[in-house]
Design brief:
12 helices, single chain, mainly alpha
């Protein structure tokens, strides 16, 4: 049964707060890339607000700095962000049949690795207001961090700013450790994904990180679904 909307949005804010804080820190480096591409703080804020994706934005800023065409920018952003389509497909299975179409659209607007992680780990059907709560803190954190990174990009040494991005890996660990401790299948899948991702980085180094992520996600999730099928409803 779905929890009420007020409770869902408060739980989303609670779980999304550390994500928003991590985004605020990590997006400083993104702001530096935006500054190098010639964007103003306001332009950087809008870009991050409507495209909350680090890899996609880095790719877009690189294309902007190279004075490439709009078509090239659209294509490289699509490729870099393609993995979010897979995440959206997974989340769509967690909605009840009564969930309105516009809720599905708004939830899909901000499917990031971290928000996907905390959302897919929840039991039962998904209340879209949980995602809205997480988005309320994650989106401003990412957008403001980018804008301030443009403003203060030359104040802090680049190695110091880059070191702050370690916070993002801490968030990933916080997302995957609890479900891995409760489910051995998830734990095995995580370990296998780490190993294969490490190997693929060196064997297929000419393939983009986003493409490698998509291939490995389909491969590992498909094999896990066949070997360990889930027979109960969400």
């Amino acid at each position: 049964m779905l929890i009420n909307n007020k409770q869902a949005i408060m739980e989303g804010i609670r779980d999304g707060t550390p994500i928003g804080l991590g985004y605020f820190v990590v997006s400083f480096t993104l702001g530096i890339a935006a500054k190098n591409a010639g964007l103003t703080p306001f332009q950087g804020f809008l870009t991050s607000f409507f495209n909350n994706a680090s890899a996609g934005e880095y790719a877009a800023f690189t294309v902007i700095a190279a004075d490439a065409s709009y078509l090239e920018m659209a294509l490289i952003t699509l490729v870099a962000n393609a993995r979010y389509m897979l995440m959206s497909m997974v989340l769509s299975q967690k909605f009840s049949r009564e969930t309105k179409f516009f809720h599905r659209i708004f939830v899909g607007f901000d499917v990031t690795d971290e928000i996907f992680g905390i959302t897919v780990a929840r039991k039962g059907y998904l209340n879209p207001f949980y995602n809205y709560g997480a988005m309320l803190v994650a989106l401003p954190g990412w957008s403001l961090g980018t804008a301030l990174g443009i403003v203060a990009g030359n104040v802090l040494p680049i190695p110091v700013v880059s070191a702050l991005s370690v916070a993002l890996y801490g968030m990933f660990l916080a997302v995957i450790i609890p479900p891995a401790r409760n489910d051995r299948t998830i734990a095995v899948a995580i370990i296998v994904s780490f190993i294969l991702s490490f190997i693929a980085t060196y064997i297929f180094d000419d393939v983009s990180a986003g493409t490698r992520t998509i291939i490995l996600t389909i491969l590992i999730a498909g094999i896990a679904a066949i070997i360990f099928p889930v027979n109960k409803e969400v």
